[in-house]
Amino acid sequence: MKSVSFTLMFLFCFCGYSQDNKIRSIYLELGGSGGLGSINYEASIFPSLKSDLHRNTWRAGFSVAPIDKNNGTGLVFPIMINSLIGRKNHLLELGVGQGVTITTRGSFFTLTTAAVGYRFESSAKPWFFRATYTPLISYLVDFQVQQWGGISLGYRFK
Fold first, then answer.
1. How far apart (Å, rounded) are the C-alpha atoms in residues 131 and 116?
2. Residue ranges of the alpha helices (H) in 16-92?
């Protein structure tokens, strides 16, 4: 529960942060940190510190996923901090965060999410593509890792 509190506190601090050169994007992810699929908003963190080789982003998403008969349907909120490393169009994406799920029957649980992947982002076009390995890590009852991945298509606003 401490990691959930820390992640949410960290993200809320940066949600209101703005500068003129902040990069924002929205993307649809099939699979990935949100489960079966999610829609995500992403924005840069400290855009004035961005280098030619590295930039940091935060993301928050939303997904709906069937859980089981006892829990009903889950509303999944993947929240992550990412680093994009590389020059020009081809980037390595590394990330960590929490997947917060609230079910229609009142249950609440979290999973740690991670991401290691490839991102193609043309400097000439606003569209980008992502392919990521996104393991879902559970630690509440016992330690379990669910092997998972996702692909995304997104649009970058300037």
1. 9
2. none
Average pLDDT for residues 43-69, to the nearest whole number?
84
Question: pTM for this one?
Answer: 0.80
pLDDT of residue 50: 61
Beta strands in the chain (DSSP E): 24-31, 37-45, 54-68, 72-85, 90-103, 108-121, 127-133, 136-138, 144-146, 149-157
pLDDT tens, 1-11? 444 444 444 44
Q: How far is residue 94's CA from residue 52's CA, in Å, rounded to a whole number?
A: 17
Domains, the chain, with CATH or none? 2-13+25-157 (2.40.160.20)
Question: How far, in Å, CA of 129 to CA of 115, rounded?
Answer: 15
